[in-house]
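Marked as duplicate of an earlier ticket. Keeping the data here for the record.
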Amino acid sequence: MADLWGMQDATTIGRIRDNYQRMAPVMNERARRLWAATEARSLGWGGVTAVAQATGLTRKTIHKGIAELEAGDEAAPTEVLSPERSRRAGAGRKPVQQTQPALTAALDALIEPTARGDPISPLRWTCLSTRKLAEQLRKAQFRVSPRTVAALLKGEGYSLQANRKMREGASHPDRNAQFEYINAKVKRFQRGGSPVVSVDTKKKELVGHFKNNGRTWRKSGQPEQVNTHDFIGEGGKAIPYGVYDVTHNEGWVSVGTNHDTARFACQALRRWWMKMGRKHYPDATRLLITADAGGSNGSRSRVWKLALQELADHLGLAISVCHFPPGTSKWNKIEHRMFSHITSNWRGRPLESHEVIVNLIGHTTTAAGLKIKAALDKRKYKSGEKVPDKVMAQLNIKPDKFHGDWNYTIRPNAKL
């Protein structure tokens, strides 16, 4: 009695398998389908089953290839594929973003608290595995695999990175918990229509005809001549302190001239509120600030807290502060949403004066609609200010239950 494959024996199956394994690496989807269909037709009865057994292709795929071969020139123009196509237009599985429109937003919400990235680059990366992300998304009723999650991450600008230790904070047991706490608090303020700002001091810049890293368009062989040595001259230095409105993608930069102090930082916050903030939040009763753990707005700085108390009294706002753990400043939104664009805008151009710096900062824009206002702050700020215990005791400050050293609220003192 004839076997299941008719006249096709094990030798024939082995020959087809060997040929397919040699050809498969250089064939696309359509070529594999048509090659398998040609083999099946040449074998006669039982050929489809034999080719499917040898190649692993489905019978449906092979029959589809046979239909394409038989259609040939007699098929309607819309049915004949051009040589560069493997499928007809519109065929194949629909993109997951189309079948599940909310998937991308749900994925971004999962990774936002722990997303990392280089402030100067659009690339970001996450410490969560695609398997764990897929598990969380499936719990939220999405149909998704780890491979699909990886493709979505790549499409959103994420890349696979090796582990890298930071100087501090990387091994702090509450680092990720603090990120999640900040993220939750930012969203809570935004839902309530309250302002959320990210603050920091940008790198200090020498003012004068000094080399500025980067390149700009000039006539070939005519680079701009700058000073050979970078010594502070008559121009002094510029200290840009930024306030970035996370919700409205707007920023303010005060350009200081002498010392980066807590009072200088709070003055920049006051100027942002008067020039930009109160226009967007006329009914606000509270303000959330996200800041680094060190520098002029450090979590341990007494002067910072005293200056914030004075600011809260002046503006009539309850000011909440969340500090990022030490060594994690790149997670602060202002770094990659505002400062990196300022750096790109003035690359390769000497910062000849404070006025030039203010002008370049104020003309920084992005395709996403970033707007920045800037002004020079010529005030003289005293460094090394001390705040005694009795003054600290008078501050209307309340630490949060979670890490009160990093998270706290300063409310206006009652009017006497």
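See parent ticket for discussion. The chain has a mean pLDDT of 81.
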